[in-house]
Amino acid sequence: MNETEYRELMEASWRRQLTAAEEARLQVWLAAHPDEQARWESESSLNQLLEQLPDVPVASNFTARVLQAVQREAVRPAARPFLRNLLHWLMPRRATGVAWVALALCVTWFAVYQAESNTKARRANELAIISRSALVSDPAVVEDFDAIRRLPYAEDEELFAVLNK
Amino acid sequence: MTDRPDPDAALMLRVREGDFDAFEQLVEKYKQPVMNLVYRTLPDATEAEDLAQHVFLQVYKSAHRYEVSAKFSTWLFTIARNLCLNEIRRRSRHPADSLDATFPDSEDQPMRQVEDAKAVSAPDSVMQSELEDKIEEALGELPEKQRTAILLCRGEEHSYEEIAAILDCSVSATKSLIHRGRESLKELLKPYLRTGAWKEK
Question: What is the ipTM for the molecules in this complex?
C-alpha cells in the first residue's frame, strides 16, 4: 500500500466502517509508518464521536402535516398554475424569454414596414392616375372651365353644351 | 452516478404523475435524514421542523420538473440545503421575523408531537447527553459548507460524487471541505477524543 491508498482508506473510513481486509492492510501500513499512528487514532476517535450523534427527534405527525400542506396546495385555483405552466413552457429560461421578445419586436417591425410600403404604393398609384388625367386633359377644356367660371350664371343646357364641345 | 436503478427515482416519477401514496412513502423514508440535516444547519433548531416540512412541500411542487439525471436523494438534499441557506439569508435581513409566520400551523392539526428523547436521567445517559451536546456545539462552530459536507458524509448515505453535487463543487473540493472540517472538530473536541464517554463497539 502506498500513500495514496492510505489516504483513500482514510477517506473511506469517514463514510463507513472499514472491512476486515482493509483494516489488515491499514495495520501493516501503520506498522511501517509509526509516525502516522497518532493521526490515524485521532481520525478513528473522531469517527466514533460522530457516530454517537443521535437522530434528531421527529414529530409523530410530521408526515401527516406534510400531506395536509400538500393537499392545501393542490386546491389552489387552477388559473394560476395554468398561467404559470404556460409561462414556464414559453420561457423555461431567461434566454428563451429574451428570444421571444426579440421575435415579437421583429414581427411588429416587419408588419409596420409592410403597412407603410403598401400605403406608399397606393399613394403612388393614385398620383399616377391623377397625373395621367392631367396629361390627357386638353388645354381648351381648361379654358372652357375658366369661361364657365366667368359666367355670372348659366342655365344647365348652356353649360352642358360648353362641356360637350 | 451508479448504474443501478434508483427505486426512489421510480417513486418520484409516480409522484410526477400524481401518485400521492408514492409521495407519502418518500416522506416517510427521508423525513429523518432531512430533519437531521436541517436541524444541524439552521441556527434556530426549534423552527427546523417547519423548514423540513417545507422541503417536502417544495419537492411535491417541483415534481413536474423532476428528471432522472441523478439520484433522488441528491435532488432532495440539494433542495433541503438551498432552503436552509435561503432561510439563513432571510433571517440575516429580517432578524425579527419568525418562520411560524411563513408556515402557519393548520387549525385541524394538533401541535407537533415530539417525544422527549432525553427523559432518562441515569448518570451514563447524562454523560452521553453532554457528549452529544458538545459534538453538536462543535459542529455548529463550523462554516456551513464544511458542516453540511461532514453531515452528509455520515452513514454511507451519499457517495462523494453525490455530496459534491449537493454542495455544487468538485469531488476534490468536497473532500477538502470534509478534511478541514474534521481537523477543526478534532481541535474542538480534543478532550473527548481519547477520554470522552462513548460506547466502545
Answer: 0.79
